[in-house]
Structures are given as C-alpha cells and as structure tokens.
C-alpha cells in the first residue's frame, strides 16, 4: 500500500542486488510515492543524482561509529538516502563515492526481529531494506504505525515464498548434496524462558493525523499492562502534554474531558516504575510502545521481548492489531489472546 512521506527517500541499489528476485528495495520504492530508485555503482558520475546527494539537509542511512541515532533528530531531513545491497556491497558503494562519504550518517536500533525469513541476515538485529525504511521514517516523522501498511506486500511475499518452498514445487530434478539437518529450534523458547517475569505492555498515542501542518509531537496517552505470572494489571490515562488530537478520544473510547483530567506524567511514571519492578521483561507487540515511551524522559523500561517476532517465527505472518473506535482496549485484548496462543498452542 503506497504511503506518502514527508521525507524524500532516494534508494541507491547495488547492481548485484537488482538481480535478486526476493529483494525489497523496489517494493519499498513503489510503496513511497515521490521516492527515487537508482541502480548504480558510481552515483558521483550521474550528474542529476550527484546534484541531489550534494543538496543541503541530505542524510545517509548507514551505520558507523559517528552516525547519529534517528531519535536524536528534532525534525526529519529533507532527503534520506538508503543504500540497498549485501553489507559487503553496500560498504563498497559508499566507500567509492565521495558524495556519500561526505553525508551525515543516521543509524537506528531496531526493537523487533526481521520477518525476512527467506534470506539470512548477517545478524539478528538486521532488517530488510523495506523494514528498515518504514521503521526509520516512523521514527524521523514521529508517526508510529504510519508506515506499517507498506510492509503488507512484503509479508505476503515472504509467506508465498515459504509456501512455495514447502510445497516442493521448485525442487531440482538433479540430486544435490545436502548438509546434515540442523537440530530443530523452538521459536517459543525465548518466551518460555521469561514467562514468569513477563509484563505485557501496550501504549496508545496522542497523535495528530498525518498531513496536519506542523503537528505537535506524538506522546503516550494511555498505558495498559499485565503481569502474566500473577494477573496483576496496570492502567493509566495520562493528561495530555500536547494539544489533544481529534482522534484520541475516539481511539480510547473515552470522553475528551476525562482525557484532559488524566493523571500527571510524573505521577504515572512513578506508579509505572513501582509496578514494573526490578527484574521484569516487557512483552511488546512490535516496537511502537517503546517508541512512544522513549519520546519523553522519565519512563522506566526493561529488557524487551517482541512477541510479534516470536509469533512470526512460530506461526508465520501476524495479523494487524484492530483499528477504529475503541481500539485501545481491543488491541490489548488481541495481544493477550496472541500471548495465550503462543503459550498454549501446538
């Protein structure tokens, strides 16, 4: 699903990656109207592209020791350059371009595991190009969930590829040497290991509709949590610190006057700190809850386990959380139901 972005995105794809049938760069480009895709080994020699790379307020999404975390930026850059390829090829592409080497670099720390189950990533924290782009744009534009729809085609592609492989339709007629089978890995083992310390968490935002001129910063407006081992619950409705979005009352199914009379931030943070305790593990569904809390100082966090990633490894594609009026309660109920299935399912 195409999603317009405030930030212009320029994709630079290594030619070898352009020949990969299950690559995600072109998918990301088609999902972002106004973005550009250039297949190149030497962007400095393409005058129109070189002019864009040299333009003010252009940043490069590329990890390095001097990169700035996207959370530290107070506003999105005008242009975001994203390099697509294996890590070796991406480093070569950046290394041979004086223009790319001169750009300020951005990095991020993903808080969920990649769903790119048809290609092996260099490390557990690595994401596909389309996942990384969606994640970073949401952080830069302070718009949690806005770019999630562009991942639907990616998720379908992964599921289709896995189904094709499982069917054996692509098996070669020639015998090939196969390595010895690996011992089975239990995808739910990380969940079982922390279940007695797990605190399920969902956070609803006060977020203005996309396209609002100069929108106020996104903020956490409601917390719901469940200590799985004891059944103890935590619920807090915060008084808004920013102008109240016209959607917030509808999403919470709470009158606007009640929201404005919500609890102060400092008192809620203290109550949350006491509820969380010293050894909790936060069970989150994706990264939006933590992103919202990290936007304001004072929140106590804990090691996290992305239950959506566990679900994807155990069962395949995860359904989107409910939306529309009263979604806050329905979303937390859906997360509880998914956790129950993960714990009790086959």
- For the biggest β-sheet, the strand order reads 2-1-5-3-6-4
Percent helix range:
25-40%
Mean pLDDT reading? 85
Give the CATH class of the largest domain: Alpha Beta
Percent strand: 15-25%
CATH architecture of the largest domain: 2-Layer Sandwich
Overall tally of structural domains: 2
Low-confidence stretches: 121-125
Radius of gyration: 22 Å
Can you count the helices? 14
| CATH topology group of the largest domain | Nucleotidyltransferase, domain 5
According to CATH, the homologous superfamily of the largest domain is Ribonuclease H-like superfamily/Ribonuclease H
Order of helices and strands: EHHEHEEEHHEHHHEEEHHHEHEHH
Shape: globular
Main beta sheet: strand number and arrangement? 6 strands, parallel
Number of strands: 11
Furnish the topology, listing elements before pairings.
Elements (H helix, E strand, L loop, with lengths): L7 E6 L1 H4 L6 H7 L4 E4 L7 H7 L4 E4 L6 E2 L9 E6 L2 H9 L2 H5 L2 E3 L21 H12 L11 H16 L21 H6 L3 E9 L12 E9 L5 E5 L10 H5 L3 H5 L4 H12 L4 E4 L3 H7 L9 E3 H9 L11 H18 L2
Parallel strand pairs: 1-2, 1-5, 3-5, 3-6, 4-6, 7-10, 10-11
Antiparallel strand pairs: 7-8, 8-9
């Amino acid at each position: 699903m195409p999603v317009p972005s405030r930030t212009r995105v320029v994709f630079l794809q290594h030619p070898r990656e352009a020949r990969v049938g299950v690559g995600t760069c072109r998918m990301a480009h088609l999902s972002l109207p106004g973005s550009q895709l250039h297949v190149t080994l030497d962007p400095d020699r393409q005058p129109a592209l070189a002019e864009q790379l040299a333009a003010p307020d252009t940043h490069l999404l590329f990890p390095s020791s001097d990169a700035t975390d996207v959370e530290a930026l107070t506003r999105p850059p005008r242009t975001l350059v994203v390099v697509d390829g294996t890590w070796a090829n991406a480093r070569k592409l950046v290394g041979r371009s004086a223009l790319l080497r001169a750009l300020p670099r951005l990095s991020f720390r993903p808080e969920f595991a990649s769903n790119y189950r048809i290609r092996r990533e260099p490390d557990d924290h690595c994401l596909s190009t389309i996942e990384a782009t969606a994640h970073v744009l949401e952080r830069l534009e302070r718009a949690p969930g806005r770019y999630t729809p562009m991942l639907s085609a990616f998720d379908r592609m992964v599921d289709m590829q896995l189904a094709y492989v499982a069917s054996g339709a692509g098996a070669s007629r020639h015998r090939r040497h196969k390595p010895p089978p690996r011992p089975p890995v239990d995808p739910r083992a990380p969940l079982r290991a922390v279940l007695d310390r797990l605190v399920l968490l969902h956070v609803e935002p006060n977020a203005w509709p996309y396209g609002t001129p100069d929108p106020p910063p996104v903020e956490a407006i409601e917390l719901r949590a469940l200590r799985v081992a004891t059944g103890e619950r935590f619920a807090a409705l915060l008084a808004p610190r920013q102008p109240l979005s016209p959607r917030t009352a509808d999403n919470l199914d709470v009158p606007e006057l009640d929201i404005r009379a919500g609890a102060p931030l400092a008192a809620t943070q203290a109550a949350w700190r006491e509820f969380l305790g010293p050894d909790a593990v936060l069970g989150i569904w994706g990264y939006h809850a933590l992103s919202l809390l990290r936007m304001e100082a004072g929140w106590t966090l804990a090691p996290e386990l992305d239950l959506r990633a566990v679900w994807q490894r155990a069962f395949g594609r995860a359904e989107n959380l409910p939306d529309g009026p009263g979604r806050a309660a329905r979303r937390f109920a859906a997360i509880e139901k998914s956790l129950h299935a993960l714990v009790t399912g086959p």
